[in-house]
Amino acid sequence: MDTYALRPEPKVKRKSPVWNILTVLVLLSICGAVYYFYTIFTHPNSPLNPFPPAPLPTAFKTATFTPTAFPTATLPSGLQPVATRTKAPTWTPLSTNTPKSTKVLETGTITSTPMPATAEILYGPSTSVHPDAGCKWMGVGGKVVNAEGAPLAFQTVQLRGTLNGKAVNSIILSGHDPLPAYGSSGFEFYLGATPLDTKQQLWIMLFDNSGIPLTDKIYFDTFSDCKKNLVMIVFTKNR
Description:
The chain has one helix spanning 17-42, and strands at residues 110-111, 117-124, 138-146, 156-163, 166-173, 186-192, 198-207, 218-222, 230-237. By secondary structure, it is of the alpha+beta class. Among the domains are: 17-52; 110-237, Immunoglobulin-like (Sandwich), CATH 2.60.40. Strand 1 (110-111) and strand 2 form a beta hairpin. The chain is built from 1 helix and 9 strands; from the N terminus they run H-E-E-E-E-E-E-E-E-E. Residues 94-102 have low confidence and may be disordered. The protein is rod-shaped. The longest helix has 26 residues, at 17-42.
């Protein structure tokens, strides 16, 4: 008969419940920490926050500004403002290079402006300035003077508009390379070899030597008549 040796059964070690309790406490601590930081993040002013943000300054209302009305100035009784106007000096007929011959320009009208200068427009034959060109010349010439008739050089004269369907835009200084017929403050614009009839298509304007306008735009006509193919403009600076 076989014999068998009996072995003792191994003992199973049971884990201590202390570790389970500690695990539960750690999990509860983590959950509590998460809730604590979430509460501070969403409610910074919560009593749980040991470092609450500084309070915002209190807005205050400023006083309303009320403008003060000033009294209107009035003229004494019996006084009325009076506008004054200085007439430009009379243009002296241009001298010619042909002996014993004098060309007299037709009298034009004075164009007054509210600006510091006035302009007088005259019409005459171009042969009084360019005798060799005959009637094959058209242009604008003139001069700039002060209220006493003394020449004013280095004033800017601008000519603009349209002529025969083409744009005209020229600028020149008074007294720059002047012709004897215009004087030391004269100027001249050449418009072409064929005199043309135009109606208020060109304008001229005067500026001082610093670029300040002395007149408004002054419109004028041109003529195909050889006795009116030179437009003469005299600017007078009154102030």
